[in-house]
């Protein structure tokens, strides 16, 4: 029996992952896919699955989640990412608590699969996401990148896990890094962090690797855990390299514009060149 809940999937260029995600959401009364400016077949796949598809692009993940929430007509809503999978056990548990009406918010532990391996260390074991809400109890979202919900009511942590098929390859990692590292770098630059130099960049990368691989014992996940810790360290360095870029005065963009203008001036002075 389908319950009074809408699944909300915010997706951008997720043609490879979306259909399998939607197939795990059949227990929901309705599925809304918020298409965040996709250039692939994401929207078509969602339409073929009889989802309501809404096109809405925004740089803020919080704004995307709030827009999706505003489209919901059922009493309950459930945020799911395209690379996440709901198990039958988790679906039954969600429906049970909706039927019992014993909470207004539900938090789920995510089982992260990185480089094809279920991670139990490296900080991934502490990944809890608050995703199921009674609509009237979800007030808003805060944070541009690592967004978090503002809500009222009883928040219950569920027993069953949400499976997260993330970091499927180095290429996938780099694609995601290109999208979010500039957003985090911009937020840090706007917060007027201290001047970034080579020491800062290297320290941030090494500390992130140490935190994941050693402190949180990511090495126990084998080579995949070490590689993931290294990738996260590289990501931190990329963030701070971009902060350094944004701190340049005059800006790097202005320097290129100056070079362009100097070349144009050379051609103005030279005039037409003929054989």
Give descriptors for this structure:
10-stranded mixed β-sheet; 43% helix; Spore Coat Polysaccharide Biosynthesis Protein SpsA, Chain A; 275 residues; alpha/beta; 8 helices
Provide structural commentary.
The longest helix is centred in the C-terminal third of the chain and has 26 residues. This protein is 43% helix and 23% strand. With 275 residues, it is α/β, with parallel strands linked by helices. The chain contains 8 helices and 12 strands. The mean pLDDT is 94. It has 2 domains: 164 residues, Spore Coat Polysaccharide Biosynthesis Protein SpsA, Chain A (Alpha-Beta Complex); 89 residues, no CATH class. The termini are far apart. The strands form 2 sheets. Strands 1, 2, 3, 4, 5, 6, 7, 8, 11 and 12 form a 10-stranded mixed sheet that branches. The chain has a two-stranded antiparallel sheet with strand order 9-10.
């Amino acid at each position: 029996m389908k319950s009074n809940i809408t699944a909300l999937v915010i997706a951008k260029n997720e043609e490879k992952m979306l259909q399998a995600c939607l197939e795990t959401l059949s227990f929901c009364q309705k599925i809304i896919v918020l298409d965040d400016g996709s250039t692939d077949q994401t929207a078509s796949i969602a339409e073929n699955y009889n989802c309501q598809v809404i096109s809405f692009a925004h740089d803020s993940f919080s704004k995307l989640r709030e827009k999706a929430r505003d489209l919901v007509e059922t009493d309950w809503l459930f945020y799911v990412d395209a690379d996440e999978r709901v198990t039958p056990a988790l679906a039954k548990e969600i429906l049970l608590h909706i039927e019992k009406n014993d909470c207004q918010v539900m938090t789920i532990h995510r089982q992260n699969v990185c480089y094809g391996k279920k991670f139990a260390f490296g900080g991934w074991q502490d990944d809890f996401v608050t995703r199921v809400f009674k609509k009237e109890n979800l007030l808003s979202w805060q944070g541009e990148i690592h967004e978090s919900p503002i809500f009222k009511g009883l928040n219950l942590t569920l027993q069953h896990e949400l499976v997260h098929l993330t970091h499927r390859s180095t290429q996938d990692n780099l694609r995601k890094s290109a999208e979010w590292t500039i957003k985090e770098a911009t937020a840090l630059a706007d917060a007027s962090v201290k001047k970034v130099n080579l020491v800062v960049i290297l320290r941030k990368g090494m500390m992130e690797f140490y935190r994941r691989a050693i402190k949180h014992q990511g090495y126990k996940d084998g080579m995949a855990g070490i590689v993931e810790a290294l990738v996260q360290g590289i990501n931190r360095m990329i963030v701070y390299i971009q902060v350094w870029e944004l701190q340049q005065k005059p800006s790097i963009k202005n320097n290129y514009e100056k070079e362009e203008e100097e070349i144009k001036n050379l051609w103005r002075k030279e005039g037409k060149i003929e054989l």
